[in-house]
Amino acid sequence: MLTHLQRLEAESIHIMREVVAEAENPVMLYSIGKDSAVMLHIAMKAFHPALPPFPLLHVDTTWKFREM
Asked: How far apart are CA 21 and CA 9, in angstroms?
């Protein structure tokens, strides 16, 4: 039986594969933050052993939090 977190991950993988199958030119925005790291991890799992079939796009606004 899957845990709640495993079900969420499985659903996310399903959605990501569905988007790639239906979208003409998908791209994933990547901010180098924790949420982006999770999305990249899910993408890597969704398309393993291949790389994700879409580019990652990082927009450097040059704006940084003081904590960085």
From this structure: 18
* Domain boundary assignment for the chain: 4-57
Phi, psi of 62, deg, nearest 5: 65, 0
What's the pLDDT score for residue 68?
Answer: 60
- Token code pair at residue 48: 């393993």
**HSE (CB half, 13 Å, CA atoms) of 2?**
8
Q: Are 29 and 1 in contact (CB under 8 A)?
A: no
Give the C-alpha separation, 35 to 42, whole Å: 11
In which residue ranges of the chain is pLDDT below 70?
68
Instruction: Say if strands 28-29 and 56-57 run parallel, antiparallel, or are unpaired.
Output: parallel
